[in-house]
Amino acid sequence: MENTLKMLSSVINPATGKSMSEEDRWINAEADEKGQLTVTYQREGISPEQKRKIEEDIISALKGSYDEDKILVKTVSEKKSTQTAPNNSQEKPTSAHANLKVGHGVQGNKKRIPNVKKVIAVSSCKGGVGKSTVSVNLALSLQKLGNKVGILDADIYGPSMPLLLNKKGAKPQATEDKKIRPLDAYGMSFISFGLFINEEDPVIWRGPMLGGVLNQFFFDTDWGELDYLIVDLPPGTGDTQLSLVQNTEVDGVVVVSTPQDVAIADTIKGLKMFQQVNIPIIGMVENMSYFAPEDSDKTYYIFGKDGVKNAASSQDVKFLGGVPLEMGMRESSDEGHPYMANDKNKTKAGWNSYMEIAENVVKIVGTEKKGIFKKLFK
Known about the structure:
Layout: H1 2-7, E1 26-31, E2 37-42, H2 48-62, E3 71-76, E4 81-84, E5 116-123, H3 131-144, E6 149-153, H4 161-164, E7 173-174, E8 180-181, E9 183-185, E10 188-192, H5 207-219, E11 226-232, H6 239-247, E12 252-257, H7 261-276, E13 281-291, H8 307-314, E14 319-325, H9 327-335, H10 349-365
Parallel strand pairs: 2-3, 5-11, 5-12, 6-10, 6-11, 12-13, 13-14
Antiparallel strand pairs: 1-2, 3-4, 7-8, 9-10
């Protein structure tokens, strides 16, 4: 333990600028007979972002003496104890279940996903704008246009697709050649990290481990023949987005925001990130555009009017359409029966909005290296 702690003497607490050793935060550092090293430190007062930086520094300090994939970082505080591990305390799957090989992703040349014609990412830099709900209903709308569609829930830290698609507790199986067999949800192929963990389990991983899981979801999943794979990204511009653009050929990004200025400001940061790495922006969707009660003729612009439409114009990207607030959308999401899966909604404004957005996506993605794509391929 003493030698290991000496190697860790350079690790700094970002919250204070002092070394972890100086603050006496190290609790233990022990290696078992299989070579797995467990490092435990006191986390009180350290944010999740600062925690990730500390974990990266721990790995950097120890990787010359230990295998990176066998370093387990545990934290303790007055409230709880958590860990970052190669297998993240997952339940051991049976031989019939698909299994995740949680290791470090290897960056290489970008690859296309076999038998998938178009990969479309759905992104927002701001949480709480309804991006996952838009992803699900956009996928169903594309399906209604006659396409074979799959959904990949790439939000490792907060996977919500099992709830939205009524698949809580379902477990993917493995094919004979050990690939992951996606679940079927409303006629769409679907995979999510939320299917591999217990619903209340925290996920606290280093960035490279995220890349390894995403590569499995992209390239070790038996997607079959798809016209569109919708990738629901987590909020922000972090490790998941980086892994996506480094390793996978993406045909475009749909950017989602609510009309309010604070959401748009963050969303544009994400948009510019994709532009900088030459991923085409298909266009922007304004979610929660307005609220029109069913028992009234009035329209309420709760989060402002035309905010995303104006932002799209200022960024020289396509405005794909706006989706209104409807009670049925919230209720259907909570119940796991998506809005666009219920034909009873055909007469409502939200249905028409999603169909318009899907039609716009098909038109734009089908026009490669033209229009808004052209300037990105110069």
